[in-house]
Every structure is written in structure tokens, then in C-alpha cells.
Amino acid sequence: MEIDSVWGNIFKKRLSTDEEDIITILQKVPIFEELGKKDLEEFAKIVHRRLFKAKEVIFWEGEPGVGMYIIQNGVVEISKRREDGKKEVLAVLKEGDFFGELALLDESPRSATALALEESHIIGLFRPDLFDILYRKPQLGVKVALRLAQMIGERLRQTNESLQLLRSKLEESHARK
Amino acid sequence: MHANSLSPPRSPRRAFKVIGALILLGAFIFILPYAKQVIILFVLSLLLSLLLEPVVSFLEARGIKRVWGIVILFGVIVLIVALIIAFLFPIISRELRSLNQTLQSQTPDQFIHKMETFLKKKFPFLRNQTLMENLTSKAQSFLTGMLQKLFTLFFNILSALTTFIIIPFITFFLLKDGRRMKKAFIQIIPNRYFEMSLNIIYKINQQLGRYIRGQLLDAMIVGMLSIIALRILNIPYYVIIGSIAGLANLIPYFGPIVGGVPAVIVGVMHTGTITPAIGVIISFALIQLLDNVLISPLVVAKSVDLHPLVVVVVVLLGGNLLGLLGMLLAVPIASVVKVTVQEIQWGLKNYHL
Q: In terms of CB atoms within 10 Å, which end of chain B has fewer, N or C?
């Protein structure tokens, strides 16, 4: 299946399926991949662990975003509402995947809805906490912010490629007419 | 219509939770009047911790572990306070003692009498005896009562030894574990309101912090200017009265007036003429002007604009509830309430609940 470059986890790594504690999960997330144990402990202190029941909405499309979520276990569906009102599923994310990281930068409305398909433990890293870390422990904060920027850049690159592909396909079909 | 998530089956467990929360809330409200002293201490510690928080965070950013940062900060504060006490205590206690004596002696009556003769000379139509008698007796009791209340209140708040121990104690732990406490509190919030509550809590924190730090800096500057002004005018007890004026500046609208009155009274009583009063009024008015035009905008990030009428009402309410302390706390508490309400409204509009 074609992976949506904005929502899909294009950075996926192989994961073990045992019960993991927060630090182990954080380690698997690319944003934190260059951090040592102590730094990860720092983040483990500021992230929030939430339990979502099956079919519970994590956030709705259009809501102001507060931060990113990492799936510790469970399944989350990312979907968008099309103009005709039907729901379009953009990605289905599993353990170790993350989503919503753009909200770490500003309050812009969420571009899709995140729904827990089954009971899921989700770890949340929120913007105010990240900014607080940037202020209190700037060296650590910058490492993470830089990594975040790189990831968003990578997503942008892939989106660009997809757009180019789409454009050329469109031109092709126009030319054929 | 958005797709609705299946609502969870209403189990008895949920009912218990709600009832439990309501009982806790009821018990809290019930205890409230008795716990007034404790709450005041806690609120003061909270304000102090908000004031000191940036310093601790600054130290933490430089690599000093949070606990040690707080210890160092407290150490520095204790040192500064000790120095101040060592230098100023003899002066202040001397001034206070003689001031208190002056109050208890005949002087208020003499002052009233002087005012009376002065007014009678300037405004002949006031020769009407009964009117003057009424006025003087009323003014007399008001003045003596207020001044004495001011000083006893001052001592009541400050001289309680327990206050000096408990407030730093609470502040220490608020500074050290405040973040953890906040996180624990957030854990309790149900998922539906989670993101919205997060937003609200952080905005309130920011707001309060900025307001308090700004206000205190502003009060300090006004206090220093007042002390200098009073010294120049040769008003006795200028340190105390200047400090009172600075602190009184924390109360909007009433503050500067309340701060100016002791200065006027003391000045007039000391010299027996009206002239110091004029000097005090002019200099204080100048300081107020400077404050409003230059200092406040620069120093106080008043991002919470409450309507002036609201401020007046709230400060009066605070005064009725908790006296002087209530007037001081009225505006910050009101601004927190305002921010909370604003954010909840915003949240309700933007979040699907």
C-alpha cells in the first residue's frame, strides 16, 4: 500500500512486541534516536501516558494541536473527511509509530482525525513541555528540535515527490485528451 | 455531523467516581472557612514559587540540578534578608516604636484640631460648629482606627514565626516538585478534555508568572522612588512609609492613595503644618505618573486587561474577604479566573467535546 508521506510512518524500524516501558519506546522513535539514557529519562519525565479505549478519538481533524503521540501498544487510524463527507483512511499506525509531530511547532489545526481502533496506550509529548525543556536544558532540547526539523524536511521531500508524480500524471492525461 | 465514537457503557464504577469527586468537593467547600489560614499560606507560597521559578530554571539550564539550585537560591535569599535585617532592623524598630507612640499619644487629636483651624481659616463658612464637630469626630476615629489597623496588620502578617518557617517550606517543595504535581493532576483528567485542559493549564501558568514578576518589580521600583522622595522631603520614618507605598502599589487604583495617606499624615503630624502634605502629594503624584507612563508598561507585562470597573469591584471584594491581603491577591486571582474562563470558552469552541 502506498504510504501517505505526511501521516504514514516512513521511518519505521523493526520492533519487539514485549511489554516495553516508556524509555524503551522512546528509544525506537527517530526523534529521540540520538539521545543517551539520561536524556531519555529527562523526556520520560515530561511525557504523558494515556490510555484510549477502542474507538475513542485521540484528536479530531481541525482541533488545535497540542503535541505528538507515540503508540506504545495498540492501533491508531488516521483519517480525513473528504469534501463529499466520506471518511478517507490515510494511515493505520501500530506500536512504535508516532503521529502529530507538526503540532510540536505551532497551534495549527490538526489536518486529520486520529482514532484508536483498539485499546491503546499512547505516550504524548506536548509543545509546552518541549519548549520548557528547550529553556531548561537547551542542549538536549536543541538535539530533539533539530531531529524534528530533519524529519519534517524528509516528509516534505516525499510529499514533493508525490506531488511531482501527480503533476506529471495530470499533464499526461491532459495531453492525451 | 462528525462520526461519533461509541460512548462507553455507563458502569457503576463511573457513578462511584462521580459521587466520590462530589463528596471531595463538598468536603473541601465545607472546610474552606476553617482552613483560611492554611489557604493563605499556601497561596502566598504559590506566588513566591512562581516568582522564583525562572531563577531555578535558569540555574537548571546551566547544569545545576534542580534541588541544589533551589537550595542555593534559598541560601542567597536568606543571606540577603539577614543582611537587610542586620542593617535596617535597629532603624526600623526605632522608627516603628516612636511612630506607634506618636499614634497613641494626643497627636491625632492635635492633627485634627490643626486641620480644623486651617480649614476654618480658609473657608469661613465652615464656622458652623455642628458640621465641624461631626466631621472631626468621624475623621478622628477613622484616622486613628485605620493607622492602628495598618500597623497591627503589618505585624500580624509578618511577625508570626510560623509564617517564616512554613512559607519557605511549602515554596521549596512547590519549586522542586511543582512540575510533577502538575503532571499527576493532568493524569486524572479524562481523555475528552485532555488536550484542552493542557492548553488551559499552561496558559494560566504563563499568565500568572508574568503578572506576578512584573508587578513585584514595579512595586520595588515605586517603593525605592518613594523612599528617596520622602527622604528628600524630610518626612520621618521614610523607610517604612516608602516601603508601604511600594507595597501598596500592588493594589490597583486604591494602592497609591493608601500608600500616600500615611506619608501625608506623618508629615503633617511631624511638622504641624500643611506644607509637607503638599510636598508628599506632589511627589507621589509624580511617581505615580512615572509609574503609569514609563515603569508599568516596561516592567509589568499586563497581558491581562481587566476592565477598570472589574478591578475596583474585585479589589473591594478581596478587601472584604481577606482584608489587606485580599486586596493584594484580588487582581492576580481575578486574572487567573479570567484566563481560565477565556481558555475554556476557546477550548469549547475549538475542541470537539
A: N
